[in-house]
Protein backbone atom coordinates (compact mmCIF):
# COMPACT_ATOMS: atom_id res chain seq x y z
CA UNK A 1 0.00 0.00 0.00
CA UNK A 2 2.77 2.42 0.96
CA UNK A 3 4.68 1.52 -2.19
CA UNK A 4 1.64 2.24 -4.34
CA UNK A 5 1.12 5.55 -2.53
CA UNK A 6 4.75 6.45 -3.10
CA UNK A 7 4.50 5.65 -6.78
CA UNK A 8 1.36 7.81 -7.00
CA UNK A 9 3.11 10.76 -5.38
CA UNK A 10 6.10 10.36 -7.69
CA UNK A 11 3.85 10.19 -10.73
CA UNK A 12 1.95 13.30 -9.64
CA UNK A 13 5.20 15.16 -9.06
CA UNK A 14 6.47 14.17 -12.51
CA UNK A 15 3.21 15.31 -14.13
CA UNK A 16 3.40 18.68 -12.36
CA UNK A 17 7.01 19.12 -13.44
CA UNK A 18 6.27 18.30 -17.06
CA UNK A 19 3.29 20.64 -17.21
CA UNK A 20 4.85 23.54 -15.30
CA UNK A 21 5.28 26.92 -17.07
CA UNK A 22 9.04 26.36 -17.18
CA UNK A 23 8.59 23.23 -19.30
CA UNK A 24 5.53 24.11 -21.36
CA UNK A 25 6.26 27.33 -23.22
CA UNK A 26 3.52 29.93 -22.85
CA UNK A 27 2.85 30.36 -26.55
CA UNK A 28 0.84 33.47 -27.37
CA UNK A 29 -0.55 34.72 -30.67
CA UNK A 30 0.36 38.18 -31.94
CA UNK A 31 -1.51 39.58 -34.95
CA UNK A 32 0.25 41.96 -37.34
CA UNK A 33 -0.84 45.59 -36.97
CA UNK A 34 -1.01 46.92 -40.53
CA UNK A 35 -0.99 50.55 -39.37
CA UNK A 36 2.37 50.22 -37.64
CA UNK A 37 4.24 47.79 -39.90
CA UNK A 38 6.07 47.96 -43.21
CA UNK A 39 6.88 45.29 -45.80
CA UNK A 40 9.47 46.83 -48.12
CA UNK A 41 11.69 45.73 -50.99
CA UNK A 42 14.58 47.14 -53.01
CA UNK A 43 15.88 46.09 -56.40
CA UNK A 44 18.66 47.37 -58.66
CA UNK A 45 17.57 49.71 -61.46
CA UNK A 46 19.84 50.04 -64.49
CA UNK A 47 22.82 49.09 -62.29
CA UNK A 48 23.32 52.67 -61.09
CA UNK A 49 20.56 52.92 -58.46
CA UNK A 50 17.95 51.09 -56.41
CA UNK A 51 14.19 51.25 -56.73
CA UNK A 52 12.26 50.70 -53.51
CA UNK A 53 8.64 49.86 -52.85
CA UNK A 54 6.29 48.35 -50.32
CA UNK A 55 3.08 46.41 -50.01
CA UNK A 56 0.19 48.24 -48.44
CA UNK A 57 -2.25 45.39 -47.73
CA UNK A 58 -1.28 42.24 -45.85
CA UNK A 59 -2.12 40.18 -42.79
CA UNK A 60 -0.35 37.68 -40.59
CA UNK A 61 0.32 36.30 -37.15
CA UNK A 62 3.17 35.07 -34.96
CA UNK A 63 2.83 32.37 -32.30
CA UNK A 64 5.60 32.84 -29.77
CA UNK A 65 6.70 32.80 -26.15
CA UNK A 66 7.98 36.35 -25.59
CA UNK A 67 9.62 35.53 -22.26
CA UNK A 68 11.61 32.63 -23.63
CA UNK A 69 12.10 34.35 -26.97
CA UNK A 70 10.95 31.29 -28.90
CA UNK A 71 8.89 31.41 -32.09
CA UNK A 72 6.61 28.53 -33.06
CA UNK A 73 4.66 29.78 -36.08
CA UNK A 74 4.75 32.69 -38.53
CA UNK A 75 2.23 33.00 -41.33
CA UNK A 76 1.55 35.94 -43.62
CA UNK A 77 -0.51 36.76 -46.70
CA UNK A 78 0.23 39.77 -48.92
CA UNK A 79 -2.16 41.20 -51.50
CA UNK A 80 0.00 41.66 -54.59
CA UNK A 81 -2.24 44.37 -56.04
CA UNK A 82 -1.15 46.58 -53.11
CA UNK A 83 2.41 46.96 -54.45
CA UNK A 84 3.41 50.63 -54.30
CA UNK A 85 6.62 52.24 -55.57
CA UNK A 86 5.18 55.77 -55.57
CA UNK A 87 5.04 55.76 -59.38
CA UNK A 88 1.67 55.04 -61.00
CA UNK A 89 2.92 53.79 -64.39
CA UNK A 90 5.58 51.54 -62.82
CA UNK A 91 3.08 50.14 -60.33
CA UNK A 92 0.72 49.31 -63.19
CA UNK A 93 3.53 47.41 -64.90
CA UNK A 94 4.39 45.57 -61.68
CA UNK A 95 0.76 44.44 -61.31
CA UNK A 96 0.69 43.10 -64.85
CA UNK A 97 1.74 39.72 -66.32
CA UNK A 98 5.45 40.70 -66.53
CA UNK A 99 5.74 40.79 -62.74
CA UNK A 100 3.13 40.01 -60.06
CA UNK A 101 0.30 39.13 -62.46
CA UNK A 102 -2.20 40.13 -59.78
CA UNK A 103 -5.32 38.99 -61.64
CA UNK A 104 -4.09 35.39 -61.74
CA UNK A 105 -2.10 35.47 -58.47
CA UNK A 106 -3.77 37.93 -56.09
CA UNK A 107 -1.75 36.87 -53.04
CA UNK A 108 1.69 35.72 -51.99
CA UNK A 109 2.15 33.79 -48.75
CA UNK A 110 4.86 33.00 -46.23
CA UNK A 111 4.94 30.12 -43.73
CA UNK A 112 7.69 29.50 -41.20
CA UNK A 113 9.38 26.09 -41.30
CA UNK A 114 12.08 26.53 -38.64
CA UNK A 115 13.90 29.17 -36.64
CA UNK A 116 16.86 29.45 -34.30
CA UNK A 117 18.48 32.16 -32.22
CA UNK A 118 22.15 33.13 -32.29
CA UNK A 119 22.96 35.86 -29.78
CA UNK A 120 20.40 38.60 -30.36
CA UNK A 121 19.61 37.53 -33.91
CA UNK A 122 16.97 35.12 -35.15
CA UNK A 123 17.23 33.14 -38.37
CA UNK A 124 13.88 32.11 -39.82
CA UNK A 125 13.57 29.64 -42.69
CA UNK A 126 10.21 29.50 -44.40
CA UNK A 127 8.33 28.91 -47.63
CA UNK A 128 7.45 31.89 -49.82
CA UNK A 129 4.78 31.20 -52.44
CA UNK A 130 4.67 33.69 -55.31
CA UNK A 131 3.24 33.30 -58.81
CA UNK A 132 2.24 29.75 -57.91
CA UNK A 133 5.86 28.80 -57.09
CA UNK A 134 7.03 27.91 -53.57
CA UNK A 135 10.65 28.47 -52.60
CA UNK A 136 12.47 28.39 -49.29
CA UNK A 137 13.81 31.75 -48.13
CA UNK A 138 15.84 32.85 -45.11
CA UNK A 139 15.16 35.94 -43.03
CA UNK A 140 17.49 37.24 -40.33
CA UNK A 141 16.19 39.66 -37.74
CA UNK A 142 15.54 40.62 -34.14
CA UNK A 143 12.76 40.50 -31.61
CA UNK A 144 12.53 44.03 -30.19
CA UNK A 145 10.53 43.15 -27.10
CA UNK A 146 7.01 43.82 -25.86
CA UNK A 147 5.23 46.85 -24.38
CA UNK A 148 1.74 47.82 -23.28
CA UNK A 149 0.14 50.68 -25.21
CA UNK A 150 -2.10 53.35 -23.60
CA UNK A 151 -5.21 51.28 -24.42
CA UNK A 152 -4.00 48.16 -22.63
CA UNK A 153 -2.88 46.21 -25.70
CA UNK A 154 0.34 44.20 -25.50
CA UNK A 155 2.48 44.89 -28.55
CA UNK A 156 5.56 43.12 -29.87
CA UNK A 157 8.09 44.42 -32.38
CA UNK A 158 10.20 42.57 -34.94
CA UNK A 159 12.66 43.50 -37.67
CA UNK A 160 13.99 41.18 -40.37
CA UNK A 161 15.82 41.25 -43.67
CA UNK A 162 16.43 38.80 -46.47
CA UNK A 163 16.75 38.47 -50.21
CA UNK A 164 15.23 36.47 -53.04
CA UNK A 165 15.96 36.01 -56.72
CA UNK A 166 12.79 36.98 -58.56
CA UNK A 167 13.61 34.59 -61.42
CA UNK A 168 13.31 31.67 -58.99
CA UNK A 169 9.57 32.40 -59.04
CA UNK A 170 9.33 32.83 -62.81
CA UNK A 171 9.42 36.63 -62.74
CA UNK A 172 11.79 36.97 -65.67
CA UNK A 173 11.01 40.29 -67.37
CA UNK A 174 13.84 42.76 -67.96
CA UNK A 175 15.70 44.52 -70.73
CA UNK A 176 19.39 44.50 -71.46
CA UNK A 177 21.27 47.81 -71.51
CA UNK A 178 23.99 48.76 -73.99
CA UNK A 179 26.61 48.03 -71.32
CA UNK A 180 25.22 44.53 -70.78
CA UNK A 181 23.47 45.35 -67.52
CA UNK A 182 19.77 44.86 -66.82
CA UNK A 183 17.03 47.46 -66.42
CA UNK A 184 15.77 45.47 -63.42
CA UNK A 185 18.08 43.41 -61.23
CA UNK A 186 17.36 39.80 -60.34
CA UNK A 187 18.09 40.02 -56.61
CA UNK A 188 15.38 41.61 -54.46
CA UNK A 189 16.23 42.77 -50.96
CA UNK A 190 13.42 42.45 -48.39
CA UNK A 191 13.07 44.51 -45.22
CA UNK A 192 10.36 43.97 -42.61
CA UNK A 193 9.43 46.18 -39.66
CA UNK A 194 6.57 44.46 -37.92
CA UNK A 195 4.47 45.49 -34.94
CA UNK A 196 1.96 42.94 -33.70
CA UNK A 197 -0.76 42.94 -31.05
CA UNK A 198 -1.33 40.10 -28.60
CA UNK A 199 -4.65 38.38 -29.22
CA UNK A 200 -7.13 38.76 -26.37
Key features?
single chain; 200 residues; mainly beta; Lipocalin; 8-stranded antiparallel β-barrel; 52% strand; globular; disordered N terminus
Describe this structure in words.
It is built from two helices and eleven strands, in the order αββββββαβββββ. The protein is mainly β and 200 residues long. The chain has one domain: Lipid/polyisoprenoid-binding, YceI-like (Lipocalin, Beta Barrel). Strands 1-4-5-7-8-9-10-11 form an eight-stranded antiparallel beta barrel. It is globular. The N and C termini lie far apart (47 Å). The N terminus is likely disordered.
Give a summary of the structure in a few sentences.
By secondary structure, this protein is mostly beta strands. It has two helices and eleven strands; from the N terminus they run H-E-E-E-E-E-E-H-E-E-E-E-E.
Lay out the secondary structure.
Elements: H1 2-18, E1 28-32, E2 38-45, E3 49-55, E4 58-65, E5 70-79, E6 83-84, H2 88-95, E7 107-118, E8 121-130, E9 133-148, E10 154-165, E11 184-198
Antiparallel strand pairs: 1-4, 1-11, 2-3, 2-11, 3-6, 4-5, 5-7, 7-8, 8-9, 9-10, 10-11
- Strand/helix succession: HEEEEEEHEEEEE
CATH class: Mainly Beta
User: In the CATH hierarchy, what is the superfamily?
Assistant: Lipid/polyisoprenoid-binding, YceI-like
β-strand number = 11
Radius of gyration: 22 Å
Q: How would you write the strand order of the largest sheet?
A: 1-4-5-7-8-9-10-11
User: Residue ranges: pLDDT <50 for 5 or more in a row?
Assistant: 1-24
Instruction: Quickly count the domains.
Output: 1
Question: What is the overall pLDDT average?
Answer: 87
Q: SS-based structural class?
A: mainly beta
Strand content: over 45%
**Main β-sheet description:** 8 strands, antiparallel, barrel
- What is the CATH topology? Lipocalin
